[in-house]
Amino acid sequence: MAKPQQRTSTTGGSGLSETATIGDVKRYLCRLIQRVDRGRVSVPIGNCLGQLCNVLINSILDHELEERMTQLEAEHANGWQPSPYREMTIRGGSHGTEKKSVGTA
Question: What is the spatial distance between Cα 80 and Cα 74, in angstroms, rounded to a whole number?
Fold first, then answer.
């Protein structure tokens, strides 16, 4: 007769909730790295959990983008129109940060 396996937490009970933010995942990864470094979590388990965190981060970003798109579509359907001129911040390059007005009016 097979002996039932006892489940143990590999992360010390500090898992992520279903409403985790990217900041939560970042903190979880920091704790996970420390546990792997101290030998409390095996490298294969740490690798697997790290990969899953990457998938979770991408899912959070996709969800946030979907919410923003839904909001923009609703605003557009309600007649919202962007102003013809808007200020846009351009970063990088040899000139640092510049602000320029862009538009067609």
Answer: 9
Per-residue pLDDT of the chain (105 residues; tens, 9 = 90+): 444 443 343 444 568 888 899 999 999 999 999 999 999 999 999 999 999 999 999 999 999 999 999 988 888 888 877 666 667 676 765 555 555 555 554
Asked if residue 10 lies in contact with residue 32, where contact means CB atoms within 8 angstroms, the answer is no
Structure tokens at 11: 């992360």
Burial degree of 56 (CB within 10 A; 0-12, 13-18, 19+): middle
Quick check: 102 and 84 in contact, CB under 8 A?
Answer: no
Q: Are 41 and 10 in contact (CB under 8 A)?
A: yes
- How far is Cα 99 from Cα 93, in angstroms, rounded to an integer? 13
Q: Which of 67, 68, 65, 53 is nearest to 22 (CA)?
A: 53
By C-alpha distance, which of 97, 67, 101 is closest to 83? Answer: 101
